[in-house]
Amino acid sequence: MFWFTPIFAVLVLIPAVRLLRRGGYSPWSALLLLIPFVNLVFIWWLAFGRAPHRASPWREDEHGYRRHAGHADAPGAAASAAHVNGGPGRTA
User: Fold this and answer.
1) Is residue 69 within 8 Å of residue 60, measured between CB atoms?
2) Whole-number Å distance between alpha carbons of 69 and 60
3) Contact 29/36 with Cβ under 8 angstroms?
4) CA 3 to chain CA mean position, Å
5) Rg of the chain's alpha carbons, rounded to an integer?
6) Residue 22: is its pLDDT beyond 70?
7) Number of domains in the chain
8) What is the Cα–Cα distance from 50 to 46, expressed in whole angstroms?
9) Domain membership of residue 76 as a residue range
């Protein structure tokens, strides 16, 4: 049964390294998946934490309210609205 442990480790670590690289994390942190109980905390942290390379689409306006970047009052929203409507000068 001891032969199964290295095979299982490789089958878990290879996809974990790829996913961590895509998320912007160090691939070495995949080794945390091999430690009992630490792996559960690590998986929850990855699932519900914020990825380091992705910015939130939510921005605060001048009044402190959080608005989505695609909101009509957000900077650059006119350009995105023109793209959605089919181009500048077209209305839906």
Assistant:
1) no
2) 9
3) no
4) 35
5) 21
6) yes
7) 2
8) 8
9) 55-92
Kindly state whether residues 28 and 60 are assigned to the same domain.
no
pLDDT digits 0-9 by tens, 39-87:
999 999 988 887 776 555 666 666 766 666 665 554 555 555 555 555 5
Coil/strand/helix, residue 23: helix
Residue with structure tokens 């961590």? 20
Q: Are residues 32 and 13 in the same domain?
A: yes
CA geometry: angle 11, 40, 14, nearest 5 deg? 20
Token pair recorded at residue 39: 């792996």
Give the residue-averaged pLDDT of 10-38. Answer: 89
Angle CA(14)–CA(10)–CA(24) in degrees, nearest 5? Answer: 25
Report the sign of the C-alpha dihedral through residues 18, 24, 27, 29, in that order. negative
Q: Do 63 and 36 fall within a single domain?
A: no
23 and 38 co-located in one domain? yes
- For residue 30, count CB atoms less than 10 angstroms from its CB and return exposed for 0-12, middle for 13-18, buried for 19 or more: buried
